[in-house]
Amino acid sequence: MKIKSIGIYLLIWGCLQAIEGYSQQDMIQQYMDVLKGTPANQVVGLPVPSITMHLEFEYNSAKLTQQAKQELNSLASALQDETLRQHIFRVEGHTCNLGNPKYNLTLSLHRAQSVASYLVEKTGLSPDQFEVKGYGESQPVVDNSTEANRQKNRRVVFLNTLRKLNQ
After folding, report:
1. What class does CATH assign to 3-164?
2. What is the pLDDT of residues 69-86, one digit of tens each?
3. Where are any strands of DSSP class E within 13-129?
4. Which of 52, 91, 143, 155 has its C-alpha lying 20 to 30 A from 149's C-alpha?
5. What average pLDDT does the structure give for the chain?
């Protein structure tokens, strides 16, 4: 079994920040702090509060590895926060440019769906609170010229849309 992508990074208001060495409680708090952004404190032109996760999936598959599930458990705990439980989130899947673009688009969607399904199962949130989108290789964060860069492009982005459920 081959595994792709290792590590977690947070995209905090447009800044990529490595968060190695955090305890699970630190991670939960960090996720809650990032995802609670509001339009009033958002910088114009930068994305909504989001977390970019470089999760491990089985090779050529949308099946989450045990490591990915452990990493998502911290996010699931953060989503138990009463304020966050009211929001709608978007889960975006991305791939590098290796392989067929059409296949990568489908794979990215399936991976995003796997993440959303896992979070619904772990949090008890409604599936209606998760919008899922696959972008394939169309939105790289860096060029795909090296394996290290391709690794950065294989990711799942989790965004708080700042819209509330039932609005």
Report:
1. alpha beta
2. 988 998 999 898 888 898
3. 15-18, 50-53, 57-58, 87-94
4. 91
5. 79
